[in-house]
Amino acid sequence: MKTVVIGGGVVGVTTAYYLARDGHDVTVLDKAPTLGTDATGGNAGLIAPSHSFAWASPQAPKMLVKSLMGEATAIRVKLSLNPRFLWWGMQFMRECTPTRARANTIVKLGLAQYSQAEMYRLEEEEGLEYDVVKKGAVYLYRDEDELEVGLKKMDLLADHGQPIKRLSPDELVSLDPAFKKASEVVKGAIHGVADGSGNSEKFTENLAEVCRTKFGVTFVNDVTAERFVAQGSRITALITDRGEFTADSFVLAAGIQSPILSRTVGQNIPVYPAKGFSITARVIDDSATPTLGGVDEKTLVAWSRLGDTIRISSTAMFDGYDRSYVTSDFDNIFKTAKELFPAAADWDNASVRSCMRPMTPDGPPVIGLGTRHTNLFYNTGHGHMGWTMACGSSLLLADIMAGRPPALTMDPFEVRTRRKGR
Ligand SMILES: Cc1cc2nc3c(=O)[nH]c(=O)nc-3n(C[C@H](O)[C@H](O)[C@H](O)COP(=O)(O)OP(=O)(O)OC[C@H]3O[C@@H](n4cnc5c(N)ncnc54)[C@H](O)[C@@H]3O)c2cc1C
């Protein structure tokens, strides 16, 4: 079966791998000159089921109101009358009840756990190198009361098999001495014992090489998909700026661009961009640089050690498809980095960038066959967890396309315009 995958991020390339392993003749198209450079190339690097909490939570509306009033909150919204954003935002608000937040978190956790195990299995089978760290991740608290609230919140994940441990500042330093300076400002931490971190761009590039050499997958870069052509219930072609691509089936894994392409054949999916900012700095003092990735839960800044660099990211800004940024967008990152790990890296020469999470309002990604065509499949909308969830999502999709029963219940991931019943 000839299959075209649109998007060469971590989701598209893992999709290509599992499909090629099943015998598909796969071609991956990406508009960028190299693979894995969009969200996949700018994320915080955490492989973190312990960070599966749904963003649509009872606390979110308050944060959005504060943001609209000009406060520099972690989730920021620019007021917009864009109908796509209003439609997405209304769905997000409906998911902010305690019951929905809990249900969405459990679904995301299940996929993240499944995916992390599959990522490590794949890494071993294919001998992939991607600066992986498997010692857990730490969630730092600067306030005793917030630590207690954080621990209580984590109970939900612990009840669903995610191991977590409370750490005092001294225990944090024993675990990783690079937290010495950080231990002066934090009151305690939560160790997501089974979490990890790694370089998703490197993983994507190296897995693409396996796809090429072992399975004969074709990668075509510098080609922009423009629209699908449908005849009745079948997609017959994909039109690009470099001509037409035909196939038996198509998989849409184009991150934030997925809803734009799906609408060309009438399929609405609730995916909207949430812009984030990240920096990458060269490590100058190994002993002052954390091996463990983590999140400062006060400033919502996340970091990972990626080989001889450290990646740090923060902020979710709902500002449409505008990728622009100003220097002050990185203030929170640099302030936190210099406070926690002052001697770690060459902060003055760090590279900076923005990148966008493909968010669904409820949190679970969109995986499976679309509702309008019999050969257009979706693997997209992984939001803030796409690196963690990529391998599992792609294996689930390959199972569906092969007619094998997937390992997880697929209802929460169904291709949808909006959640049924809401
Ligand atoms: C700031 C930030 C921090 C994050 N931190 C983490 C983290 O710590 N852990 C975690 O698990 N996840 C994290 N994420 C989320 C994660 O990075 C994403 O969910 C994931 O990378 C999505 O992968 P993707 O392949 O779907 O999208 P992308 O990586 O964006 O790839 C989509 C690809 O499609 C291509 N494309 C788009 N349109 C077209 C077109 N028309 N034609 C051809 N090609 C096209 C693009 O060029 C791109 O290469 C973070 C995201 C951000 C933004």
Assembly level: single chain
Rounded Rg: 21 Å
Shape label = globular
Detail the poorly predicted runs. Answer: none
Into which percent range does the helicity of residues fall? 25-40%
Mean pLDDT: 96
Class derived from helix and strand content: alpha/beta
Main β sheet profile: 9 strands, mixed
> Bound compounds, please?
flavin-adenine dinucleotide
In total, the number of strands is: 20
Intertermini distance:
37 Å
Strand content: 15-25%
Q: Give the count of helical stretches.
A: 11
Describe this structure in words.
The two termini are 37 Å apart. The strands form four sheets. Strands 4, 5, 6, 7, 14, 15, 16, 17 and 18 form a nine-stranded mixed sheet that branches. This protein has helices at 10-21, 39-42, 60-68, 83-94, 98-126, 144-159, 169-175, 200-215, 258-262, 331-340, 386-402, and strands at 2-6, 25-29, 46-47, 75-77, 137-141, 164-167, 188-192, 196-197, 218-220, 225-231, 234-240, 243-245, 249-252, 272-282, 293-296, 301-306, 309-318, 351-359, 366-369, 376-380. It has 422 residues and is α/β, with parallel strands linked by helices. The chain is built from eleven helices and 20 strands. Strand 15 (293-296) and strand 16 (301-306) form a beta hairpin. Bound molecules: flavin-adenine dinucleotide. The site of flavin-adenine dinucleotide has 43 residues, from helix 1, helix 2, strand 14, strand 18 and helix 11.
